[in-house]
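User: Could you check the structure of this?
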Amino acid sequence: MGPFVPDLISDQLNLVIALAIGFLFGFVLEQAGFSSSRRLVGVFYGYDLTVLRVFFTAAVTAAAGGLLLAAGGLLDLTAIFVNPTWLYPAIAGGVIMGLGFLLGGFCPGTSVCAVAIGKVDAMAFVGGSILGVFGYAELFPRFAAFADSTSLGPAMIYTSLGVSQGVFVLLLAAAAVLAFTVGGIVERKVAPETAPSRLFPVRTHVAAAGVLLAVAALAAILPDRNARLVARVTASGYVPHHTVKSMTPDELAFRILDSDPRMRVVDLRAEATRKARPLPGTIAVPAGEILGREWRKSFSPRLLKKVLVAETEADAKTAAFLLVETGFENVAYLEGGYPAFERTVLSPAAPVGEGRFTPVVERFRDQARTGLAEMVRLERAAGTAAPKKARKVQGGC
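Assistant: Sure, the predicted structure tokens are below.
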């Protein structure tokens, strides 16, 4: 389900569960008072900050829970889609939405929640939202240049701050506790008789704040699962669960030219390096994503030998050990890394050594060099597509 690493349920059942979660989400919104326009706009006037509390609670729960699940190896954070950011369009959209929220008393999600329980003002708001969507779509050519400007890609706050994910979650939890405390004071000043915070049990909330900060601190100090695995497989004396064999450059060249259906070559080199010095018949997997959920199908077939090619033999061997450590089998690595393949097979001056098979090896390498170059040319001309990755998990309200 979702980005969880064990694929516990099918994609079809995933949709059913998503529908159930959607109903529960709407129920929680309604119970929190998000179907009331008066309560929603209270955050702007200071007499009811329930919206602020709910949003902070959701953010901290998702962030801390995600890190804890990832640390336990149950969640693949790289499989979660991060919406790209366009700075100025996002600011303009936020201003427009904020004004609409203030004037209409709803945001798009809460308006649908209110419609579900028959609120007439919410129906009018949803109708206006639909008209706005169609109007924007019709006028979009006029705004296209602005809408595509100032792209920042999938920007992350913690990278902008220069801190780790764990430290950011701890800071977010501290900010939530501070916002809850200050928000309660503001509420009681603005609306001393109706402020929701006047009924809060102080000891219970202080204890909850302590638990929240403790959980966030735990998420911050737990080491990343991938880092733990790398440390384990690179430690002296490590013995993999299954045999990890090496493959010589000559054997790899032969099996690529032979289009061996029992072998899958995985190129772990950087994208720029792969383009400058291509290796045909391979799939490209970023070395840092080798344990990502989207590549599991590429490594899963047990009868298919997965040969890892990296810039160094040590990098390929570490990647092979990581795969074996996480349950994959029939994994091998290229001896000497790609530079050895380049020196041995692709270089016309590669020494073969003395022996009765020297002429045969020289002839094979000459043919392999020509054949591999032709395969590269054909792949570039055909625009060979990479294997289809699993889609990133998207969500939001």
